[in-house]
Design a protein that fits this description.
globular, alpha+beta
Length: about 80
């Protein structure tokens, strides 16, 4: 019986650790942090807002893709 436990960074969810337990007393404790997003903000190109990229920004935070694109088009204002 295998059990997998996932823990996630409470701040932004970018860091994920997977712990796999195979049998009682045995554990695979290799951390899988995945790929951290390169975008924390602010966006400098509207292409960074596309394909869900708008969700990766933290400074500022956007409600949707169009809000992110508008921010870039208005020069970051």
């Amino acid at each position: 019986m295998n059990f997998e436990i996932y823990t996630m960074d409470a701040v932004d969810g970018a860091n994920v650790t997977r712990l796999t337990f195979t049998r009682k007393g045995e554990a695979d404790l290799r951390a899988d942090w995945g790929t951290a997003a390169a975008y924390y903000g602010p966006p400098t190109d509207k292409e960074q807002c596309k394909q869900g990229g708008w969700q990766e920004f933290r400074t500022p935070v956007f409600a949707d893709q169009s809000q992110c694109v508008s921010f870039v088009q208005e020069g970051g204002a």
